[in-house]
Task: structure prediction
Amino acid sequence: MSTTVLFFAGLREAVGTSSFSLDLPPEVNTVGALREHLAAGSDRWSALTRTTNLRAAVNQLMVDMNAAVTDGDEVAFFPPVTGG
Amino acid sequence: MTISVQEGDFDVGREIADLSSGCREIGAVASFVGLVRNADATEKEINGLQSANHSAQITAMTLEHYPGMTENALANIVAQAKARWDLNNIRVIHRIGRLLPGERIVFVGVASAHRGDAFAACEFVMDYLKTQAPFWKKEETATGGRWVDARETDDTAAARWR
Result:
């Protein structure tokens, strides 16, 4: 089962897509590892490591970079929220 | 209905009236309405500058959100408020899409027996919404679009409830 990755706001514009799916390599088992994995893969994803205070959610719950990621999860990366 | 995420405007008077309708135990309704500002107050407050720079005038603002997570996050904030204070009713409305200066963005209304709980819960919901609910603002000015930066003062405001 593949993992869905979503991007929002300025990060979505920087990476040029709002979502995509991938099969997680076995060593990619946390949000932070997924971030590093994507950023190392191509220049296109470098905004993931350039964005200061990058936030993440797994299955629509806000988490920190140490949170676990498994196949089938919905992982989102985004800048700090600015609603209200 | 407690939570709405919608493009359309809302009727403040009707929302406030609905919060206490049919419940005679309610003695207080506190509410907050957030509006789109025309000036880039973030720059002004951080740098201590006056808004002489007219290029910073905001002509419109677009609100993006994370469908699904937004509703879950708001429901979680409302549940925390209900657990913390004695509340009869609570209503949160957040608009999305493109809004013009002066337009309403957000409504939080809280009904309780006494004003202390209503005031506190209303402020708590707004402070948590600002830091926990996945909304992002993009400002339009004469010189182009710009994503609004998160403000440290919002984190400080949310932290005082912990």
The domain at 2-78 of chain A is CATH 3.10.20.30 (Ubiquitin-like (UB roll)).
